[in-house]
Design goal:
The complex is a heterodimer of chains A (about 375) and B (about 150).
Chain A: H1 4-10, E1 15-16, H2 19-22, H3 24-35, E2 40-44, E3 53-59, E4 62-68, E5 74-78, E6 93-95, E7 101-102, E8 109-110, E9 116-118, E10 141-145, E11 148-152, H4 160-164, H5 168-174, E12 182-192, H6 197-203, H7 209-212, H8 214-219, E13 231-235, E14 238-242, E15 256-260, E16 264-269, E17 274-284, E18 287-297, H9 303-316, H10 324-338, E19 346-347, H11 364-379
Antiparallel strand pairs in A: 1-19, 2-11, 3-4, 3-6, 4-5, 7-8, 8-9, 10-11, 12-18, 13-14, 14-15, 15-16, 16-17, 17-18
Chain B: H1 12-25, H2 29-34, E1 36-46, H3 47-51, E2 59-62, H4 63-72, E3 81-93, E4 96-107, E5 110-122, E6 129-137
Parallel strand pairs in B: 1-6
Antiparallel strand pairs in B: 1-2, 3-4, 4-5, 5-6
The chains are: A alpha+beta (about 375), B alpha+beta (about 150).
């Protein structure tokens, strides 16, 4: 009979040291080796539809601005003046087409393209100071995928297509409104007192559903033990819970949830025609901030339709949703339990003896995420 | 469970808000629900989305959904709340009573939520009740989950 120690040796992806959820130095390493090496979601193109529209972002702790330039191009620039480092965008969002980004400290002004266009009393700097060399600094890499703005701090990162790899087909379908462009309906942010990885784990975890949300099942007269259904799939370092495994994309009609390593989850809920994206930002090792976008196919993104989508979305998802609030509370309790320095690993081991069968209760997708985590954390320590 | 709250405001609309928040702090969810009309709405929204008339809320409950929310969660006695109400104002025009007041909510001893209550109050039936209660949350990010009402 196999022992626990043997199982741990054979499947390190299924047994996790608690410290990766609680050690601040591991979070620092995650920021450097994961968030600053991979592709990360910055935002959605439809947050900034007009020239000069911008939204402030904080990704991996870095102050950024997502802005549509005068040339219509989406840029991601660091939100810091080239003179004395002040933020140049102070408001959370707005339009800078006419006002420029004006540094509040000494009045340096930058255009929507990031170019330095005004320096008060410039003569004092000397001839070495040329405006064209002092624009806002752009993020190393930016690429769009179905309206989603991805960026990377790593100039040598692989292409976004290659990065998404086996997740690309389902991702493309899930973020494209059954063949139609998605637009942002509305957004908000919320905090959860848990390590950033817990929400990814939770999203890819079908096993918890009848228990954390058992009250909801009972209220609606559904047997909690009937479970979630669908299959939990590993797609490279990414994951999915897929209710229509194997069916051609164009014939699919039901829910699909995805986790794209490292910081986003993508959702389609057929019952309310709801598309949603969640972006997860570590605040510190014990806290995360989640940005949630509700999206809709462009042709049906009307006030009336979106009211219905938002109502269906809100009753289930987010920090006040009947499911979302229960998840958030549960993750707080997990984080508190993770602090136990008891020497015992936590498990994502359900299904390893069934050959990682893609069953909804198996923790296959959580293990896929852990393989990605190990890959980036170890690769950068060599 | 009965609520031992006594009216502490001369204005019945403000008093309703005091009694509502006191009932939440005392985990008396039956009393909370009894303060709403049966066609009322209970909503929680970020300031950003409220000011923009955005469609996305944190909570967007009908009376029935609020009842379900309150009934489906056991009182979180391990996480007591303290509501502090500030700067209430009431307007009565053409039979409509509007109430606004700021709030701070400590949860488990820590400052958690701050914002503004914006209510329409039905005073036609004797005991005032919420016709609509909107809870507008300040801040860039909702700082915690809202399993029950706040």
């Amino acid at each position: 009979m196999k022992t626990v120690d043997e199982a741990i040796r054979q499947r390190p992806d299924a047994f996790t040291d608690r410290s990766i959820y609680t050690d601040p130095t591991i979070l620092e390493a995650e920021i450097e080796h994961i968030f600053k090496k991979t592709w990360v979601l910055i935002g959605h193109e439809t947050e900034i539809p007009e020239v000069g529209d911008y939204v402030r972002k904080t990704i991996a702790g870095q102050p950024l601005i997502q802005v549509r330039g005068n040339d219509g191009k989406v840029r991601v620039v660091y939100n810091t003046c080239r003179h004395r480092a002040s933020l140049v965008a102070i408001e959370a969002e707005g339009n800078c087409a006419k006002s420029n980004f004006k540094c509040p400290y000494h009045g340096f002004e930058y255009s929507a393209d990031g170019n330095l266009v005004k320096v008060p009393v410039k003569e004092g700097f000397g001839e070495w100071f040329r405006e064209e060399e002092f624009g806002l600094v752009e993020l190393a890499k930016v690429d769009l995928f179905n309206g989603m703005i991805f960026g990377s701090f790593n100039p040598d990162v692989v292409s976004l297509d290659e990065y998404l790899g086996p997740a690309k087909e389902l991702m493309a379908y899930t973020t494209h409104g059954d063949g139609e462009e998605l637009v942002m309906v509305d957004t908000y942010k919320y905090d959860i007192a848990g390590n950033w990885k817990l929400l990814i784990d939770n999203t890819m975890d079908g096993y918890h559903v009848p228990y954390v949300h058992g009250g909801m099942f009972e209220a609606f007269g559904i047997d909690p033990e009937s479970g979630l259904g669908g299959v939990a799939r590993t797609l490279g370092f990414h994951g999915a819970i897929d209710w229509e495994e194997g069916r051609p994309m164009a014939e699919r009609t039901t829910n699909r949830y995805m986790a794209i390593f490292p910081n986003i989850t993508v959702h389609y809920n057929a019952s309310g025609d709801m598309y949603a994206i969640r972006q997860i930002e570590p605040i510190d090792v014990d806290n995360m901030q989640v940005t949630m976008w509700l999206l809709a196919p462009k042709s049906t993104s009307t006030r009336e339709m979106n009211e219905r989508r938002a109502a269906a979305f809100t009753i289930t998802w987010g920090p006040g949703g009947l499911f979302g609030a229960d998840d958030a509370r549960q993750l707080e309790w997990v984080q508190q339990g993770m602090k136990a320095e008891c020497g015992a690993p936590v498990l994502a081991a359900r299904g390893i003896e069934q050959g990682d069968e893609d069953h909804w209760e198996n923790e296959q997708s959580m293990r896929g995420f852990r393989v990605g985590w190990n890959h980036y954390m170890n690769a950068n320590q060599k | 469970m009965t609520t031992s709250v006594q009216p502490n405001s001369a204005d019945p609309a403000v008093d309703l808000l005091y009694r509502y928040t006191a009932a939440l702090d005392q985990f008396d969810y039956d009393a909370v629900l009894a303060m709403f009309n049966d066609d009322s709405t209970y909503r929680v929204q970020s300031r950003r989305n409220y000011e923009r008339n955005g469609v996305l809320h944190i909570v967007r409950d009908s009376y029935q959904q609020l009842g379900f929310r309150l009934a489906s969660h056991p009182p979180l006695r391990l996480e007591p709340t303290v509501h502090v109400i500030g700067n209430p104002s009431v307007s009565r025009e053409a039979g409509a009573t509007r109430l606004r007041a700021t709030f701070n909510i400590d949860r488990n001893g820590k400052p958690t939520f701050s914002g503004e209550y914006i209510a329409t109050i039905d005073e036609s039936g004797g005991e005032p009740r919420f016709a609509n209660l909107m809870v507008v949350l300040e801040g860039d990010s909702v700082p915690g989950s809202v399993q029950i009402a706040i």
